[in-house]
Design brief:
The protein is 50% helix and 21% strand. A hairpin with a 2-residue loop joins strand 29 and strand 30. It has 31 helices and 31 strands. Helix 13 runs antiparallel to helix 14.
């Protein structure tokens, strides 16, 4: 006790220590900067391209070996894959903890790549987030938008200059460039001229590759100087040219077996073209190039957005960037809103705390009481920043939510110390207050612990912020603040307790009358009060159980992203045309700023930017659905205020069987009243022409199937024979074969040459006869069969899967699963096949429900603490009995408003429970001294005890409400 008294007397030391702590906190905050919160788990995607292979072959030769290699890495949680034509993508997610994940993924992918043919592309390893919605996207126009060459140059500038710079930014996961096709030289060999000359197409490509090249010959020494030798055999327009085009190959001499030569232009058509881009991009119907950035898991979007702007400014390119979506800018705007709300709340709390100090409001101790709230916020922010948290809107929202608990501790401490006449009494009062304050803080922190396990980064950040603010307020209230609150102890004089304004006196009398009536009613009818509390609590529990939990997040406030599906195999050019007309029609509506479209083979994407002051996201969605697009179906991935999307997966061994079961399930779901919309997450791909050999004809013609297959690949795909190197970089040179008329006819209608079905079947295959001019058409050696191939093959944890997505209203995913259980039972699943309802949503819902149990356990924990401090089993019951009714009323208001229990509400409920415990401790502390009058005047003692505690109760209530008022003006989505 003497040590505590001695410490309370050291006011200046306490002030200096507190000033030092604030200085360190400011230093930590200023130097923390914006950082990326390292993901405790981690997600990566590995992509390998092998052009010319269909989805089935990509799965067999690339995806499965890649899955096997990656699954061997320790700490893998899930492995998902997608096999498409020419592309294999494997998504992996790690368990929390561990290091060296990227290196392990890189080594595994490299081992698989080394086993693939040389035509396979090197693996791309990218950090991945769960969302496939870009965090930043823009359309790019050249200085002369109507000039085709200028637009092509702009697209290549994006690919060669802008993309590498943006990929190097911290927080960037993947950079997608649309509207850009790779430049290439296509050499179309005329088979009718090759066969009489005895030339094989592959030999022509091999000859060009060996001669159109440059080599380093090493170095020599001449007159004490080192000279570099370069052997340059490239075909150029002149001997001193640094660049070349397709015309430089016209006069190349190809050797024949008889010693003669033939010019390449005599046996081939040579053209320079741009390979069809993976994505054809338009802005409001105008052709343009586009660039989109997928964020890395845990990326600081504000920092990423500012880095992007800085990089683009530093490049100084003659391009016009039209930013369509910038989640980082939205994050910054929301951060400013939350910061202003938190700052306003802290200031209001401080001012009201100062005004409600009563007779000591003019003392310096009252100033310290008001200053304590900003100081606690400052120190808490520094602690969280030092712990690795980025100072963003979620962190500030958590600190603002924790201010209510913090101010309770400060006001209770001030209330206890205000009437102490000496340091011994102050020490005793502080020792008496320590137990209840520790109990209240322990309740809040213990209840917040399970939120750290919820798979919701926002909930974890807010819960951590509330916990740190609560602990910081507790420590400061019991250590550094008491000496400051006793600053004027030796010089205090009694002052008038009258309030300075008549309005305050009238308000005080009204409150006292209300308190008297309330005490009289409660003491006369205690059973009725208990019954009301029980009914409110039971009703709130039933309402919350009926409403369930809501696991959904919300997307951007000024843009929506949609997927458009067409018939499988529809050319990207045709899809681009349909989307161009659609984009123009949609952009003409009020409130729509820009519509960016991206077309792929059989599908497309939409990014609709709108003005949130004129329209809202759900109205834009409805407008997009109502606008007709011939042969297209529009689907939105993100949850909205009115819609929730759930994925139902079918697992099995055969991809086709999984798809059939998923289609059957989608048909069964049609009649269910909960389901508003259903979408197959797969579709039939392009038509497939299978060529099968006639073995007898192959034997009679003395040719091999391998030779015919290689010739067919040359005629249809035209693989890259070699790469030309000049000052502009590398250019692919592709060798193709076929009849001239087929290519010329198609080239007149299309900008990119494609082989036709007739041209494919008309490809010539030389026979093994002595007459080298003998050749047969493919259709005479093979017969064909048409099928339809899948557009992609998906696997989860190395099992094939097909899924559907259903749309419902906002509700608990477990309720949706329960409602649909009867439909699942109607599906006749073969042995080894299974069905699963959105496992991620179920896991989040269960984690949210666990927070209720954690709150109950925290209350029990708090009971034990209060009981041990007060040496009583009944006092904790009185204190904790205030929690259920205090949470019941906001729970009922929540239900009536149509909202459901989610992670942010869980944080709010836990913070409220801590504040309730503090207020209840204050009341019970005052009532313990009340001795019931034998004459039955028990209500007078209760009234007097509560009246003495009314200033502190009013202070905690007013400051809590004042701190919450600025945050109530924030829009939905500015915090979560």
């Amino acid at each position: 006790m003497k040590v505590l008294v001695s410490w309370l007397e050291r006011k200046k030391a306490s002030l200096c220590i507190l000033a030092g702590i604030c200085s360190v906190a400011l230093f930590v905050i200023i130097n923390s900067g914006e950082k990326i919160i390292e993901n405790t788990g981690g997600s990566y995607v590995v992509k390998i391209r092998h052009y010319g292979l269909d989805a089935g072959e990509m799965e067999r030769s690339v995806t499965i070996p890649l899955e096997d290699a990656l699954s061997a890495i320790p700490g893998i949680m899930t492995v998902q894959s997608s096999s498409e034509n020419s592309l294999s993508s494997v998504f992996i997610h790690f368990k929390p903890g561990g290091r060296g994940r990227y290196e392990a993924v890189r080594d595994s992918a490299q081992r698989v790549y080394e086993t693939l043919p040389s035509s396979a592309q090197r693996p791309e390893i990218l950090s991945s987030s769960n969302s496939r919605v870009p965090v930043w996207s823009a359309s790019v126009l050249a200085e002369k938008p109507d000039d085709v060459k200028e637009n092509v140059l702009a697209a290549h500038t994006l690919e060669k200059i802008v993309k590498p710079r943006l990929e190097s930014l911290e927080g960037t996961g993947e950079v997608l460039v649309s509207g850009v096709g790779q430049k290439e030289i296509v050499i179309i060999l005329d088979q009718e001229k090759l066969i009489p000359l005895g030339l094989e197409p592959l030999m022509v490509g091999r000859f060009l590759g060996m001669n159109d090249s440059i080599f380093s010959g090493g170095t020599i020494t001449l007159q004490n100087r080192e000279i570099i030798i370069t052997v340059d055999g490239r075909y150029m327009q002149t001997n001193y040219a640094e660049t070349s085009d397709a015309s430089s190959l016209n006069n190349v001499l190809i050797p024949l077996d008889d010693g003669k030569t033939v010019r390449l232009s005599e046996i081939a058509i040579i053209s320079e073209q741009e390979r069809t881009p993976d994505i054809l991009s338009r802005l409001n119907g105008r052709k343009t190039a586009g660039i989109a950035i997928m964020g890395r898991h845990g990326a600081d979007l504000r920092k990423l957005s500012s880095d992007i702007k800085r990089e683009l400014s530093a490049l100084s390119l003659p391009l016009e960037f039209t930013v369509l979506s910038d989640l980082g800018a939205e994050e910054a705007a929301a951060f400013n809103s939350v910061f202003n709300a938190a700052l306003s709340g802290a200031i209001m709390v401080a001012v009201i705390s100062f005004l409600l100090r009563g007779k000591n409001s003019t003392n310096i101790s009252g100033f310290f009481c008001a200053l304590a709230i900003p100081l606690i916020c400052l120190v808490s922010t520094a602690i969280l920043s030092a712990g690795g948290f980025s100072i963003d809107r979620l962190l500030l929202a958590g600190i603002a939510a924790g201010v209510g608990t913090a101010v309770d501790a400060i006001i209770l401490c001030s209330e206890k110390l205000r009437n102490c006449s000496d340091y011994d009494k102050a020490s005793a009062a502080l020792a008496e207050l320590a137990g209840p304050l520790i109990a209240g803080a322990a309740t809040t922190v213990a209840a917040l612990l399970p939120l750290s396990l919820v798979d919701d980064g926002g909930a974890r950040i807010i819960a951590s912020a509330i916990a740190v603010v609560t602990i910081t307020a507790l420590v400061l209230s019991l250590s550094l603040l008491p000496p400051l609150l006793l600053w004027g102890l030796n010089s205090r004089r009694e002052k008038s307790k009258k309030l300075p304004f008549g309005q305050f006196r009238r308000l005080s009398r009204c409150l006292c009358r209300f308190l008297a009536l309330d005490v009289r009613f409660c003491t006369r009818y205690p059973i009725f009060i208990l019954a009301i509390s029980f009914v409110l609590t039971a009703t709130a529990v039933i309402a919350l159980l009926a409403k369930g939990v809501d696991t959904a997040g919300y997307g951007s406030e000024d843009s929506v992203y949609a997927q458009v599906e067409f018939d499988g195999g529809l050319l990207a050019e045709e899809a681009d045309y349909l989307l161009a007309v659609y984009g123009k029609n949609l952009a003409n509506n009020a409130g729509i700023k820009n519509v960016e479209t991206g077309a792929r083979t059989g599908s497309g994407s939409l990014l609709i930017s709108f003005d949130p002051k004129q329209t809202q996201a759900h109205l834009v969605r409805e407008l997009a659905k109502q606008t007709q697009i011939p042969g297209g179906f529009i689907f939105f991935h993100e949850n909205s205020v009115k819609d929730r999307y759930w994925e139902i997966r079918i697992y099995g061994d055969e991809d086709q069987k999984c798809r059939e079961l998923a289609e059957e399930l989608a048909y069964i779901c049609v009649s269910h009243p909960l389901i508003r919309e259903r979408v197959l997450n797969f579709k039939q791909g392009s038509k497939k022409l299978i060529l099968l050999p006639d073995r007898e004809l192959f034997a009679e013609s003395k040719t091999s199937f391998n030779k015919a297959a290689a010739i067919t690949r040359l005629g249809v795909y035209g693989p890259v024979a070699y790469k030309r190197i000049d000052s502009r970089g590398e250019t692919d040179v592709r060798i193709r074969i076929g009849g001239w008329d087929y290519f010329e006819k198609y080239a007149m209608q299309n900008s990119v040459m494609r082989q036709s079905k007739e041209g494919t079947l008309g490809i010539l295959v030389s026979t093994g006869e002595e007459d080298t001019s003998t050749a047969l058409h493919i259709n005479s050696l093979m017969y064909s069969r048409e099928e339809t191939e899948p557009s992609s093959i998906r696997r989860t944890d190395r099992r094939r899967t097909a899924s559907i997505t259903i749309a419902t209203g906002p509700m608990d995913p477990r309720r949706v699963k329960q409602e649909l259980a009867g439909l699942f039972g109607k599906l006749d699943l073969p042995p080894g096949y299974s069905i699963e309802f959105d496992p991620d949503a179920i896991q989040q819902a269960e984690a949210l429900s666990a927070t209720v149990l954690s709150l109950i356990m925290a209350v029990i924990f708090c009971y034990m603490i209060i009981a041990s401090i007060n040496e009583s089993f009944t006092v904790p019951l009185f204190v904790l009995s205030a929690i259920p009714p205090s949470l019941a009323i906001p729970a009922l208001c929540l239900t009536l408003s149509g909202s459901a229990y989610n992670s942010s509400i869980a944080c709010a409920f836990i913070a409220v429970s801590g504040m309730t415990v503090n207020a209840a401790v204050l009341c019970v502390d005052g009532l313990r001294s009340v001795i019931p009058d034998k004459n039955g005047k028990k209500s007078i003692g209760v009234y007097l005890a509560l009246r003495r505690k009314m200033p502190a109760l009013l202070s905690t209530t007013c400051t809590t409400v004042a701190g919450a008022v600025p945050s109530s003006s924030l829009r939905k989505g500015q915090i979560f």
